[in-house]
Fold each of these.
Amino acid sequence: MKFDIDNCTLCPRACHANRTKQAGICGGRDTIRCARAMLHYWEEPCISGSNGSGAIFFSGCALHCRFCQNAVISAEPYGKYLTPERLAEIMLNLQNQGAHNINLVTACHFVPWVIDALGIAKKSLHIPIVWNTGGYETVETLQALEGYVDIYLPDFKFFSPETAKHYANAENYPETAKKALSEMLRQTGKPVFDGMLLKKGCIVRHLVLPKHRHESIALLQYLAETYGTDQFLLSLMSQYTPMQQDEQFPELNRRITKMEYYSVLDKAQELGFDGYLQDSSSAKEEYTPDFHLQGL
Ligand code: SF4
């Protein structure tokens, strides 16, 4: 993979930061930074299983969604700097604690260093590697992960460029996420299970936003027409939680209604998607962990 640390184009923002001197839009400098490592029980059941997923939360994010559910680590300069060697140790510690997989959460802006860590850890790791991402990734960066990642867990957040611009100043999000998903599916193929646990494959997550059910329905139709419904698992999420009162975007100041969620859920079922279709009563804040540098 071509990576110029002094002219970074790792992610679709392509902000050309000289990361030896300053952080890019993502907040990333020239060293891995993480906020927490933990056994995580709130992912999809085929990821968390009974023992938990070995989640490592990376600090920073290139996307900066207005409604981010993890803003404390994605938008703030918060976290602990780690070498690839230390990150590899953390992965092995999680495996020793019984984690079913290593779940790398929003690591796109640290890909070269993460690949170094995976190269060290892979010799002793015997559990799948999960790439847990906002879906805003370049095909080139994803290709660099081929052979290291077993399971892709991307969001597909926005289907219209207008909405992507409105909430994340990323008009190119839909086109970028489409290409990224095609590359992820090329690498993994259809889901492969070992008992209840996913060993290989792709889970596409979509968080239904207030006042955006029609866009969610259009996304589901696109996914079904483009890929069919048996190439990946769909995780349709209802737990949108307003993290602050937003005067500029007042429509984001409430949770979604049952009508909004069930209209999207009905379409997912009508199209024949398989996966995780939450009941709207599961909209709770417990899905967002606290970040206090534990496990690092
Ligand atoms: S990874 Fe960060 S520094 Fe690199 S292009 Fe993206 S936002 Fe800029």
Amino acid sequence: MEIGIIGLPSVGKTTLFNIVTRNRVKTGGYAAGNAPNLGVATVPDARLTWLSEQFHPKKTTYATVNFVDVAGLVEGATKKDAFSSQFLAALRAVDALVHVVRVFDDPAVPHPNETIDPVRDIHTVDTELILGDMGVVEKRLERLQQDIAKGRNRAEAEKEQALFLRLQTCLEGEQPLRALEFSEQEKHALRGYTFLSLKPLVYAINLGEGQAFDPSMLTGLPTDTVDGVLRVNGNSALAFQGKVEEEIAQLPEEEVADFLEAMGIEEPAAHRLIRTCYYVLDVISFFTVGEDECRAWTTRRGDTAPMAAGRIHSDLERGFIRAESFTYADLRRLGTVAAVKEAGLFRLEGKDHVVEDGEILNIRFNV
Ligand SMILES: Nc1nc2c(ncn2[C@@H]2O[C@H](COP(=O)(O)OP(=O)(O)OP(=O)(O)O)[C@@H](O)[C@H]2O)c(=O)[nH]1
Ligand SMILES: [Mg+2]
């Protein structure tokens, strides 16, 4: 899984990258033209920590998420120029976007548009993503028109044309493609494209030191909370104090708890960001346990047991026979695997079994 960090220049993108990946990439100093920063974040999971304490494996492996930090987006960036192609290439493959929105004010860090105006900035970046996609849609429509005129693959081309006209109408109405619903067939037709406004989006609102989030900072944008996740403008959001969180990310492990308490921060932004990304990507975690290794894996919600097994190794998907399965919650409640078995909660699941968050699997396979 890969997440792209985007936003206007000097909003704290690299700062957030450092926070979530525990890197120390240089921040400040306008980064346009520099190669993207690539890093890996560990997905915190207290369940795996507990499992590891029970099974005492040689190795404990948390799930990871890759982050890409690109140079600041400037108005007109998605138009055709060298910078834009570099920007797009870095973002094409990501599964979701995190848009860093600046609320912190610091005269030492000039904003490219001079004033602090998060609502304007959100609009600017959203518009750039929409314009970038519009270019792709227009090009494809031209091509389809030519195919239809030449009678090439006519029925197919006309179907795709109808779909792309719908995309065009959406974008011309200044709406992201995320706002549309697609049939399975349409999703398939769009698979080869990498529309930026179709990717799940998280707003990361970068506050000043000691500043608390207040919806009035975003007056004009609808703000609410769904499933305990803040939503702004229909997208998931989280607020964080960039400078403070950067310090937290660089503290030795044993000092973190005290510092958080002193700063009145309940949970580090890195954890909240990863959790929010899981939420928008609609992915879940399952575990494998044993003497050698206890490990967390990530799979899409709704995946069947063989699909989840495929995340471990393609052989396990190909040769899938059955999955031994019980849940973290049952093990935690009952204490031992034997007690879970005794309670009849240790199951053998077949190919159609849909994996749930927190399931502990052992895949029986034969290749
Ligand atoms: N006061 C304050 N400064 C911050 C905060 N977050 C980032 N900065 C500073 O703002 C400057 C720019 O931060 P970066 O993280 O490099 O910003 P960026 O978005 O990556 O910038 P570009 O890559 O150049 O577009 C640095 O000097 C940071 O230390 C914050 O929350 N408060
Ligand atoms: Mg940067």
